[in-house]
Amino acid sequence: MKKRRLTTRIVCLILGTITAFCLFGCTNDKPEQSELEKSLTISLKNYLDSDGFKSDVLAANTARDRLLLLYTRYTDKNLYDSGIASQFKLYLNFMSGLIDDGELSDEKFASSPAAQQGWRGIPDYLYSWSLIYNQYAQYRRNNGINDTTYDNYIPAIQRYIASVDDYLRTGETTDGSAPVTTVAWAHDITNVLPMVAANLGIKDSTPYCDSVMLSYYEKTSDGYVKEGGACDWVGFSGRPLCASLYVGESAYDVKYEKTMQGYFPFTDGWDQPLDEMVNLDRLCDYYGHTLESGADAAPQFALLTAMAHGIDVRRYKKEVPFQNDAEDKTYDILSLWKNGLTSDENGNYVIDDLTDMAVAISCLANIKGVKAPSPLGRYSPESAVICL
């Protein structure tokens, strides 16, 4: 009887291991793929294997481009070599010049290499640092490198962002210092701090910023109290990007996020009918019927932000009445994006930049079961659901 129980346990353990691998890793047993999944998988692999992608990685020095590259966490490809990793470490090492007696020092920042690079203050630098930290973590994991050097900074970072969060609430610090809270354009300190915390796996250190973020969902009988902005045309703007961290909160309201996706480029602003906003009309130019925006915005960022909030863009439709009594047409929002791509001699879509790469990855991750694919959060190998 004991031998039978032991055998049963071993079988269960093996089955459990296989199940976990199928859920969180790539296997060779691929289920039947949809045409969308097939075409995007081939197109994405072609880009990630190209010299163009390698050049784009080397040139990716902005927070926007780093955010887009963090979508590669959903793929099983090893994308970074030691040369790229050395660039990561260059920027990560600037942190050592900000430490004074084990704590991050605003006073030391002014003369630091981070300030000379253009970061406006420690919080501004921490946001980029948290993104680069995750890029380096992905490199370490894929190359079997054990390096905990930068993990050692996280306790000091946690104490620092907690102190800045408290400063924002009270307007003063215990030591009389005044942190520089200016951050990158289209971001605000109250959304940067929670994103830094999320990217480094820090919990419960930004209660004031969290309350500010959740306050955007407050509404009266007349509608929402606060305007929250849409994703901008330089990259993700802080408010809607950060808000994806709160999807599970009871105060979170996905209707508000849908409204933000449709807020621009309408000149009627908040008087625009909510139903039209929720249809993500900003993705389709009314007259040209193409995936463009009258606000000179990159509509791909609306797709990415929508997907990060768990909005299934594959099911969004856009009804366009044609002129001259022609038949009205209904567009699939995602197809508008695909139709804007060129095709190669084999009929595959040509992805040739980081923005379209991120859309393809986000869509494929969603197909693979990731409800709200986002570039935010601490890197984990379990997120690699796309087999290339």
Q: How do the helices and strands line up, and which of them pair or pack?
A:
Layout: H1 2-24, H2 35-48, H3 51-58, H4 63-69, H5 82-92, E1 99-100, E2 103-104, H6 106-109, H7 113-117, H8 122-143, H9 154-170, H10 189-199, H11 207-214, E3 219-220, E4 223-224, H12 238-243, H13 254-263, H14 274-278, H15 300-308, E5 317-320, E6 329-332, H16 333-339, H17 354-367
Antiparallel strand pairs: 1-2, 3-4, 5-6
Helix pairs in contact: 2-17, 4-8, 5-8, 8-10, 9-10, 10-11, 15-17
Largest sheet: 2 strands, antiparallel
Low-confidence stretches: 1-25, 263-295
How much helical structure, as a percent, in the residues?
40-55%
Secondary-structure class? mainly alpha
How far is the first residue's CA from the last residue's CA?
A: 46 Å
Overall pLDDT: 82
- Structural domain count: 1
User: Quick one: how many beta strands?
Assistant: 6
- How are the strands of the biggest sheet laid out side by side? 1-2
Radius of gyration over C-alpha positions, nearest whole angstrom = 23 Å
Figure out the total of helices: 17
Q: What is the molecular shape?
A: globular
Strand composition percent: under 5%
Q: Give helix and strand order, one letter per element, not per position.
A: HHHHHEEHHHHHHEEHHHHEEHH
